[in-house]
Amino acid sequence: MGFGFFIPDSQAQGLCIDPAYEAGNFDLNSTTVCLPGIVSITDQSGGTDIKYIFDYQNQNLEEALSQAQASTTFDYSSIAVKPKTFTVMQIGKKNGKTMIACKKINAKKGNSVVYGYSICNIGNLEINIPVDPINDYDKYKVTIFNPFTVIDFQKNDIPKKLNFVIGLNTRFKIEGIYNDASKNCNGNIDEEILPFPNFTGMDYPFNPNIDEIELTSLDKARLTFSGPTINDNDPDKLFNLYKYVKGSPITYTPAIKDIKPGNYEITIDNNSLSYCFFVQREKNSCNLKERSAEICTNPINPVTGISFTPPSRINLSWEKYPNTIFGQVSTPPYSFNHTQKIQKIERKIQQNNIPVGAFSTQYSDLSVNCKNEYCYRIVREVSGFYNPQTSGNFFPLKFKSKSISNQVCFDGSKQKPVPITDLWVDTEPTNQNRIFFKSNTTWPLAKSKFYLLKQNNGNYKIIDSTLNNSIFNIQDDELVTKSESYKIQYKDICNALSDESPEVASIFLKSEDNQEIEWTNTIPFSQNNIQNYNILFLDENTLNITDSVSQPSNLQTYVPDISRYESKAPLRLSAVSGTVPPRYSHTNTITIPIFQRISLPNVFTPNGDGKNDTLKIIGGIYNKNVISFKMEIFDRFGSTIYSFDENNPIWDGRVNKKILTIGIYFYRIYAKFKNGEIMTKNGMLEILH
User: Fold this and answer.
1) Which of 99, 231, 355, 458 is most exposed, with minimal Cβ within 10 Å?
2) Whole-angstrom Cα distance, residue 363 to residue 342?
3) Band of the pLDDT at 207, cuts 50, 70, 90?
């Protein structure tokens, strides 16, 4: 298992140096604030929605947005226990992008100095004063009170290391002095009171300690390590960082060598495992080995660790945190306590933390609105005392650490509900398409809205919707002029939009020559093929169905017998599905005019087999608009061999009771209609046996 490390400057950077963001700008009333002074900000960015973080510590954008505040003033007395350089971040919007700007500010009480110290063997005190933006004084003064000792030195002596042998329960203070008195900060310098040795844990502020480890993602962690100040001219006092897989034997091969207290970003190769970390150095101020307590990562699996139970419950689960330190249970010289809470963020806004049992491994949030995004982290605090393994020091050290899990989120509106799969399209008598569907998906959430999508130039667009959860059909108000394709989508009560349904296409009916009808070879059913078609003959006036003729599903043309009609022949077609019971998808209604509508087949076979044995004039004698009719048959020499009229409307292919020989014959038709129109028609037909 491997780790990669990127070591940033101990001062926060993160978003401040990311070129992906628009640059903001602001002014501070001072770059150094003498507490309890107030820092104030003047915006110079030209941006909008501007907020500030007064102690930016390398948070990611989401964290920064949840913590930023609109206030332009801040009192660092609330957080500056010791003199410190803080990062002030401006965050807002500019040119349609997120805007970021950062500046440093030094906060201190009186002429305090940044320093660190360590104690070993009870009476050996080492003080280190590093190069630091706050340590810009001209002179320095260190006062030890037991035994009383005063040491003065100049700014050119920085960094400075001082060693003392001290008595029990002593104290000391360090102050800086400017030659220019106007630069001095008013206020007394706090004295450092060294705690009296005890077996419940020595509480030294500069003990090596991993203050926090946070999984910023499953494969990256941010580790904050505090401890003694180490000057650059003292490299043999640096620490090594160690890691091992939780529950495995402790390994003492450094994961990274020679580090100072600061912030570190760690790349974790196997994000399914929990790792425990501690720092250790071979030589402290007494040249003895010294280590921190350990702290372990607490990952949440983003797939199995968060789930949603409709309609309003989010479930979290995670692995149990170890109840040991360095494999030791909580007995002297080890003693530790655990607390655990859940950090909840709703719509990017931090909510109140939720306390849970120290060793709980699951939690259900029962108060969620699934239309919102919810994010969670497990925050574990471990405190107590431990054996630092420093020979000669018989007193355990106190520690306090925090482990923050990776963030897992659930947004019901971004889920992808399963699509509706059962739908069909029907063209109504008004020649408008209506799409029917069944809301019988396996999606557990109720559906709040259905959408009708229509294809246009190869793309599907929403053309209508319905909020009615009891009516499962939507009409396309446009009159049909061709076959149209449709899909259905829906939103659930969490505002999640489903995948699109399968496509269905209406069947369009037409007649180019007012004789043969044809229809599109399209499928109106999403789950079934067409079993057969029915040609529907409609009443001229009421448009009720008066008759029907079945056609096989592999045909898309038909010549209807419309001799029953007087002035117009309204026709429609229905496709029949193979389901039980069957479904019907109708076409648009077309009307074929009757006047001058006489046609006949160009082949017939008078052979007595019962198929096409007679020549029947379609729309001729049976057309109620015909007053008189006559048809003559000629051979190839032009001789009349047969004729018939409205009184003798059918010919069986015989002359003098004998079937004509196979061949080509010619005909002439004369017809007179009720409206006074006269029609003549010449053509040829073929007789086959």
Assistant:
1) 458
2) 9
3) confident
Residues 91 and 122 in one domain: no
Determine the 3-state secondary structure of 55 from DSSP: coil
Pull the structure tokens for residue 260: 């100072």
Q: Give percent of the chain with pLDDT exceeding 90.
A: 61
- 479 and 435 in a single domain? The answer is yes
pLDDT tens column, 560-604: 988 788 788 999 999 999 998 999 999 999 999 876 556 677 888
Last residue of a domain, one of 296, 325, 352: 296
Using alpha carbons only, give the angle 85, 90, 93 rounded to the nearest 5 degrees. 165
409, 312: one domain: yes
Over 50: is that where the pLDDT of 281 sits?
yes
Residue 364's nearest CA partner among 410, 322, 404, 414 is 410
Q: Name the nearest CA neighbour of 128 among 167, 88, 93, 174.
A: 174
What is the pTM assigned to this prediction?
0.70
Count of beta carbons in the 10 Å neighbourhood of residue 242: 20
Residue 539 and residue 624 in one domain: no
Say how far apart CA 208 and CA 202 lie, in whole Å: 12
pLDDT, tens digit, 9 for 90 and up, residues 616-644: 766 544 456 778 889 999 999 999 999 98
Alpha carbons 654 and 292: distance in angstroms, whole number: 117
Q: How far apart are CA 153 and CA 156, in angstroms?
A: 8
Are both 325 and 279 inside the same structural domain? no
328 shares its domain with 257: no
Residue 392 belongs to some domain of the structure: no
Q: Give the whole-angstrom CA distance, residue 307 versus residue 302.
A: 9
CATH number of the domain residue 351 falls in: 2.60.40
Q: Report whether pLDDT(67) > 50.
A: yes
* Distance between CA atoms of residues 275 and 218, nearest Å: 12
Task: Give me the number of domains the chain comprises.
Answer: 7
Q: What DSSP element (H or E) covers 64?
A: helix 61-67
Mind giving me the DSSP string for 517-573? EEE-----BSS--EEEEEEEEE-TTT--EEEEEEEETT--EE----TT-SSEEEEEE
Q: Using an 8 Å Cβ cutoff, are 200 and 164 in contact?
A: no
Report the distance separating Cα 594 and Cα 589, nearest Å.
16
Beta-strand (E) ranges in 305-446? 306-309, 313-317, 335-346, 349-350, 354-356, 362-365, 373-386, 397-404, 408-411, 423-427, 432-437
Last-in-domain residue among 561, 593, 625: 593
Question: Cα separation of 254 and 77, whole Å?
Answer: 39
Domain of residue 54, residue span: 3-108
CB contact at 8 A, 604 and 618:
no
Name the percent of the chain lying above pLDDT 70: 95
524/587 Cα distance (integer angstroms): 10
CA neighbor of 14 nearest in space, from 299, 290, 264 = 264
Which value, to the nearest 10 degrees, does the dihedral of the CA atoms of residues 304, 310, 311, 312 take?
Answer: -30
Spatial separation of the C-alpha atoms in residues 167 and 173, rounded to whole Å: 15
Handedness of CA 498, 499, 502, 505 (dihedral sign): positive
Does residue 311 form part of some domain? yes
Residue 202 resides in a domain: no
Q: Tell whether 598 is covered by a domain.
A: no
Q: Helix, strand, or coil here: 396? A: coil
